Each structure stands twice: as C-alpha cells, then as structure tokens.
Amino acid sequence: MWSVKKPGGAGPAPGATQGGWSLSEQSVHERRVSRALRGLVLFRERGMEIRPLADGSWRVPSCSAVSRFYVVNLEEESCTCADFRKRRKACKHIFAAVIAASRRGRAVSLMAELRARRAEELAEAVAEPVPQPVTESAIRESYDLYLRVCGLYPRDSMLVEAARARHKAALRAYVVGSA
C-alpha cells in the first residue's frame, strides 16, 4: 500500500487529517486489507497444508517457518499466532483458514465468509493488473472496489469525494512512477 509523506521524507504530524479522515484511520483500513491479502497468498502458496482438526479448529502453517503451525478457531475467530494475541483481530492465518474452510464446503460464520469473499475479490482485482489510462471513471471504479472490499463504503458524499481525491493522486503517482 502507499502512504502519504511530506517532501523531504518527513511524515505528517500525529493526529493529522487528510480529506476528513485521520491518517491513523486510513492506515488501519490499509492494514486490514493487507492481512486479508496475505491470508489469500498464504492459502494459495500453502493451502494444501491447511487442515481441519478433530475439535473443529484448523491447523494453518506459518509463513516464516516451514515446520511451525498455528491453530485457528473459526467460530471464535481466534488464532494462536503472536499477531492475533497482540491485536485480538483477524490475522492472515484466520483469513487463510476461512478460505480453506469455504473451499471445502465447511460451515463458517457469516462474518468469516464475508471476509474471505472480500479478500478473494480484492486479490482477483489486483492479481494481474492490466495497464490502463488513468481516467476519472477508472479511478472511481478502483476506489469503489477498494471501499467495497474493505466494507468501508462511507455514506457521506464529502468523505467519498475526499477519499477519491487521495486515491486519484496515489494512482497517478504509481502510474507515473512505473512508466
């Protein structure tokens, strides 16, 4: 993901806002999407190693150590990894287990299924990027997809327009930087 920085490398002041959203709120949303995407990558790379256990929980491999596994309980949406123990929010292992469970036809909570679908939808949208001109409609579609996938579709039109402006600037910077 991208971040907003001042010229010269200095970051924005703590608690600063941009377009009505605080930068900390923005980064929370970006981290949530990032964990969902990392869960999808984990499933794609090591999905065959994700196994259901007798008690209804799932055994999910670690990304960093080949022989390390974590136990994920989908009903409680909990994991034995350090990230979950610290934050108490869905980690990449939970997202990977949800995808594995839904692919195997196992019943999981509605919230967990929704998160898995959002992760897959976002991953499909960014899996094979096709170079496109940066037009207003492309920016609008791209940002609308981002908001839908994150479940963040704001109802306030001023917030939506401010967020689109940030997204538009980041997209243009990315396209210019990759050319």
UniProtKB/TrEMBL annotation:
The keyword Zinc applies. The keyword Zinc-finger applies. Residues 70-102 form the SWIM-type domain. It holds the Pfam family SWIM. Residues 1-25 are annotated as: Disordered. Keywords: Metal-binding, Zinc, Zinc-finger. It comes from the Bacteria. GO terms for molecular function: zinc ion binding. This is Zinc finger, SWIM-type. It comes from Rubrobacter xylanophilus (strain DSM 9941 / JCM 11954 / NBRC 16129 / PRD-1). The lineage of its organism: Bacteria, Bacillati, Actinomycetota, Rubrobacteria, Rubrobacterales.
